[in-house]
Amino acid sequence: MEDRLEQLRVLREAAQLGGGAQRIAQQHARGKLTARERLALLLDPGSFQELGALARHGISDFGLAAERYPGDGVVTGFGKINERRVAVYAQDFTILGGSFSEVQAQKITRLMDLAMESGIPIIGLNDSGGARIQEGVRSLAAYGEVFARNVLSSGIVPQISVILGPCAGGAVYSPALTDFVIMARDIGYMFLTGPEVVRAVSGREVTVQQLGGADIHHQRSGVAHLVADDERGALDLVKALLSYLPQNNTDDPPHLLPSDSPERMAPVLNSIVPEDERIGYDMHTVVAQLVDEASFLELQPAYAANVLIGFARLDGYPVGIVANNPAVLAGALDIDSSDKIARFVRICDAYNLPVITLVDCPGYLPGIEQEYGGVIRHGAKIIYAYAGATVPKISVVLRKAIGGAYIALSSKQMRCDLNFAWPTAQIAVMGAEGAARVLWREELKQAADPIALERQLIAEYRERFFNPYHAADLGQIDEIIEPAETRPRLIRGLEILRTKVQQNPPRKHGLYPS
């Protein structure tokens, strides 16, 4: 027995060292932490329960007989973050470059199966050189096993991917299938085809960071939801993100004792909307005044910045925030912002977070590029997401809610529960200038002074339709409220809706706009 115990101790020590002291030093020289150092930062002290620490690839694998390491390039197990259970895996770059293998897949899919059955979030720390070439098609099949679990877990338990090194080729699809992607600047990157392939096909010279770095995916592709300056910051973002999410789709999001009064008024909001409707303002200021102090965690802030999305708290309860930002493109909707809103609303609906929508939108962005790019089908995604969501929904029209944007952004017809408006709200089929020219085309043609008449007709249209009272008369707006009282109104509304029960018709699944 003593010999067996000694053998176990030796193997455990070897597993702790990963690829050995030299490769650990090389990892540190790259400015990167090891897999186990990352787990120590992420998890509560002493909470990690490892699984598969001694698993190794087969000795028959081509060219790898001398490189059989316990763990085979990934550390998997369960732990706690702020006393909440999580499943976590961390790829170990010190072992064969973290290359993805059949054994890695077995360890990760086993972990994911247990996590889904137990109803706990799954966190993946990615740092891998890609598929293990020596295993051939087995490494490709291994990816497929993980992808299938990503899909089956989707909407059941939260899935968070953290990119702390290379993630290339087929490996990128697993993070893309998860709920959230967090990237560490300078060390994390993602792309399907690397700089060499791009050079061979297009002749363009590009670095890994220019092709798939954190800033590219944060600002241009929208793949990254959050970006941190370093690994520690990325792991802190995981903790912050989890603080808004439930353990699973049958659980309620975690409530925190609020330090901010639910009755707090915000007088600054009474004057935040400019008198001149052509002048924008920053919606971040509005959100900060409405939610619990310093509770807004914005997602994808640099991507499609004409809309804001993110998590916040109202009286300690997590909510999802969707808001147009008039400071960018006047808050108009376009292809990218439509995708951004739709996916976020569906995430909130999957994990039982109410959706608060702050509307100031002149409509969909016009243009040939938008039409050719499919703004119709992308814009339809917003409608699909809001109409299908069964969580509590409250909207507030701050200023413009014009045409199709009014309908799409959580209108009564999208099964919104409570619809408020500020006195500055403008709810209409189209802008006053365009409406006047359409409604009184003949009168303007025959007028002695068409310019003066047009001004008069525009003013009449504004007076009659460019205010929220007509919509309130028709029951499309539940109440017109003073901007300063918006926060307590939202909190009271959510308190009423906390026990809301709504179900969609039974079906296998709907057909999401392409």
What does this structure look like?
With 514 residues, this protein is α/β, with parallel strands linked by helices. The protein has three domains: 2-242, 2-enoyl-CoA Hydratase, Chain A, domain 1 (Alpha-Beta Complex); 267-425 and 467-497, 2-enoyl-CoA Hydratase, Chain A, domain 1 (Alpha-Beta Complex), CATH 3.90.226.10; 431-465, no CATH class. The protein is 39% helix and 17% strand. The protein has 20 helices and 17 strands. The strands form three sheets. Strands 10, 11, 12, 13, 14, 15, 16 and 17 form an eight-stranded mixed sheet that branches. A hairpin with a 2-residue loop joins β11 and β12 (317-324). It is elongated and about 105 Å long. The termini are far apart. The mean pLDDT is 90.
Describe how the helices and strands are arranged.
Elements: H1 2-17, H2 21-29, H3 35-42, E1 49-51, E2 74-81, E3 84-91, H4 102-118, E4 122-126, H5 137-153, E5 159-163, E6 166-168, H6 173-177, E7 180-184, E8 189-191, H7 195-202, H8 208-212, H9 214-221, E9 226-228, H10 231-242, H11 283-290, E10 297-299, E11 307-314, E12 317-324, H12 335-350, E13 355-361, H13 368-373, H14 375-388, E14 393-402, H15 403-408, E15 418-421, E16 426-428, H16 432-439, H17 441-446, H18 450-465, H19 469-473, E17 479-480, H20 486-497
Helix pairs in contact: 4-5, 12-14, 16-18
